[in-house]
Design goal:
single chain, about 450 residues, alpha+beta, Glutamine Phosphoribosylpyrophosphate, subunit 1, domain 1, Rossmann fold, seven-stranded antiparallel beta sheet, six-stranded antiparallel beta sheet, about 30% helix, binds guanosine-5'-monophosphate, binds iron/sulfur cluster, binds magnesium ion, GATase_2_dom, PurF
Length: about 450
């Protein structure tokens, strides 16, 4: 998912419209639903719907004059893809109104929800984020900051939040820092966004990232930083943000995503030693690494596969059925580029292996004589419980097959996966021991949901 928030008293900074643009820039983080909530200091208005940002706000954004807004784009990792599961969530409680957007997955939401239901709480959605809202509204603490702190001391897992009250914009990043959240300045106002590309889009300046375990509170007196209750769990920024999920023009925790991906490609060229006539990418997610591969190896990069611009991230649609039919709609081989050539095809990851197999076949049908596949991440053998939909374990091809069997399954002439050490080397601005690599090495940085071993995240 993607989250956004803005606080501005400047009448020229239409907060709802800026949120719309921000969400548009974060569209790659979720395409199932979108929403914007705004406040003028007294009441709140909200608009949510299923679909892409431009579809949901086809008839405009919330029009009420406002000085705070938050937004959300969703891709479902818990709870079904339904209208009632769209965010931001908005509730009225004894302390006033509160609206909340969440990116990440809580790992103890089920237990907390059962406990809250037994105490009489009613839930309107099936998403884990509603547990946080429920805890906040039930808290007896005096201030909203304290209520949020108290609530978050009970939840485990991954969360980046933007929260709006009548007079405050609050951003929170969980103590392990799984997901990104950054702070920007727009004129005299403040912006929070999952990725810095959203700040660029609205002309805001990136100030810094919200630190793991930090809560930033923005109101008429400025930005204040508070710390969540200390955690003994290690920092665990998601490496998959750099491999696949984030946009290459974003900078997360001072590491450029583009540079990380480009270096992964260079590293891949060094490690694989593969030679061929051309290097091609599976667009768009494989392109930056393919350019790095080409740069390192001296093998020319060519556009061997073309992506239909009008189609989204097919993988992100929840059901397998939709994914299967959409590969050919999404990609086509450029016969004049690949015909008679040996080809190195670079992609960011292999999850189920179904897309990759279809693409290899497509290239062969278009006349490629050899297809050597290079993957800019290690084999994904374990499911993610922290907000990326890398499938349940039984669907992960690397959970049950060795590299040679995977090569045969996808029909490639060779197959090479980037090593974990090579991956770490590609991100010099980050500390390797402060990251999560659990989908590659099963070193889960915080407890996985109970009963998840076989089923995985919903
Ligand atoms: P597969 O060959 O495993 O069926 O598909 C691999 C492709 O899925 C890669 O091109 C990768 O970029 C893409 N992909 C799209 N969305 C996701 C996602 O949410 N997680 C992962 N791991 N890969 C995704
Ligand atoms: Fe990211 Fe993988 Fe960790 Fe999930 S398990 S948070 S995808 S590195
Ligand atoms: Mg891809």
């Amino acid at each position: 998912c993607g989250v956004f928030g803005i606080f501005s008293r400047d009448d020229h900074d239409n907060v709802a419209l800026n949120t719309y643009w921000g969400l548009f820039a974060l569209q790659h983080r979720g395409q199932e639903s979108a929403g914007i909530a705004v406040t003028d200091g007294t009441v709140m208005d909200i608009q949510r719907g299923m679909g892409l940002v431009n579809e949901v706000f086809r008839h405009g954004v919330p029009g009420m004059p406002a000085h705070i807004a938050i937004g959300h784009v969703r891709y479902s990792t818990t709870g079904s893809s339904l209208l009632r599961n769209t965010q931001p969530l908005l509730v009225t409680y004894s302390g006033g109104h509160i609206s909340l957007s969440h990116n990440g997955n809580l790992t103890n939401a089920r237990e907390l929800r059962i406990e809250l239901e037994q105490q009489g709480s009613v839930f309107q959605t099936s998403i884990d984020s509603e547990v946080i809202v429920n805890l906040i509204s039930r808290s007896n603490k005096a201030t909203v900051e304290e209520r949020i702190m108290e609530s978050l001391s009970r939840v485990k897992g991954a969360y980046c939040l933007t929260v709006m009250t009548e007079d405050k914009l609050i951003g929170v990043r969980d103590p392990q820092g799984f997901r990104p959240l950054c702070i920007g300045r727009l004129h005299d106002g403040w912006v929070l966004a999952s990725e810095s590309c959203a700040l660029d889009t609205i002309g805001a300046e990136l100030i810094r990232d919200v630190e793991p375990g930090e809560m930033v509170v923005i109101d008429d007196t400025g930005l204040h930083s508070l710390s969540l209750a200390p955690s003994d769990r290690r920092k665990a920024l998601c490496v998959f943000e750099y491999i696949y999920f984030a946009r290459p023009d974003s900078v997360i925790d001072r590491q450029s995503v583009h540079q990380a991906r480009f270096s992964m490609g260079r590293q891949l060229a060094k490690e694989s030693g593969f030679k061929a006539d051309i290097v091609i990418s599976v667009p768009d997610s494989g392109t930056t690494a393919a350019l790095g591969f080409s740069c390192e190896s001296g093998i020319p990069f060519a556009e061997g596969l073309l992506k239909n611009r009008y189609i989204g991230r097919t993988f992100i649609q929840p059901e397998q059925k939709k994914r299967d039919t959409s590969v050919r709609l999404k990609l086509n081989a450029v016969s004049s580029v690949v015909k008679g050539k040996s080809v190195i095809m670079v992609d960011d990851s292999i999850v189920r292996g179904t897309t990759s197999g279809k693409i290899v076949r497509m290239l062969k049908e278009a006349g490629a004589v050899k297809v050597h596949m290079c993957v800019s991440s290690p084999p994904i053998g374990f499911p993610c419980f922290y907000g990326i939909d890398t499938a349940v374990r039984k669907e992960l091809i690397a959970a049950s097959k060795q590299v040679e069997d995977i090569r045969q399954f996808i029909g490639a002439d060779s197959l090479y996966y980037l090593s974990l050490e090579g991956l770490m080397r590609a991100m010099p601005a980050l500390r390797p021991d402060a990251m999560c690599y659990a989908c590659f090495n099963s070193d889960y940085p915080c407890a996985t949901p109970s009963g998840a071993e076989t089923g995985g995240a919903e």
